[in-house]
Amino acid sequence: xxxxxxxxxxxxxxxxxxxxxxxxxxxxxxxxxxxxxxxxxxxxxxxxxxxxxxxxxxxxxxxxxxxxxxxxxxxxxxxxxxxxxxxxxxxxxxxxxxxxxxxxxxxxxxxxxxxxxxxxxxxxxxxxxxxxxxxxxxxxxxxxxxxxxxxxxxxxxxxxxxxxxxxxxxxxxxxxxxxxxxxxxxx
Length: 187
What we know:
- By secondary structure, this protein is of the alpha/beta class.
- Helix content is 34%, strand content 15%.
- The chain has a single domain, classed as Rossmann fold, CATH 3.40.50.410.
- The strands form two sheets. The chain has a three-stranded parallel sheet, covered by helices on one side.
- Helix 1 (13-27) runs parallel beside helix 5 (154-163).
């Protein structure tokens, strides 16, 4: 999963997330799979959960996978995390998975990390060109770094992989391989 023409995975996070959601749209056969998008500037640009199999919802989801209009570029995760907690509470019978994509240059890190650890579901904490906090690697919270030097498709693979964990019929799809010449040059 990567965009035609490549590009770095950090700069293409919205496009790669779109690819992952499109793959999930095709893959989910139960009709019950839900997805949504929350932004740091929540509720601006947010997309409440909807059925992935719905073509209309896919169009709505696509509109949410971009920088929100009039976004302030907030570095505070709390408001969107509050919305995620509220959404999780509305769907107590669903397996809830939260994927956080950030550079971790947050103004509310301590409180947010505690809340992420107590989130009622699994959390994938992706650091965009930054290491997620070391406290991210625990039972229901995993940290992952995706940087400019990662191959195109890294965000899509991480998102798709996290959202299909535990699903019947899931096939493991490995992340795109790094360019070995680039790795040798930095070694």
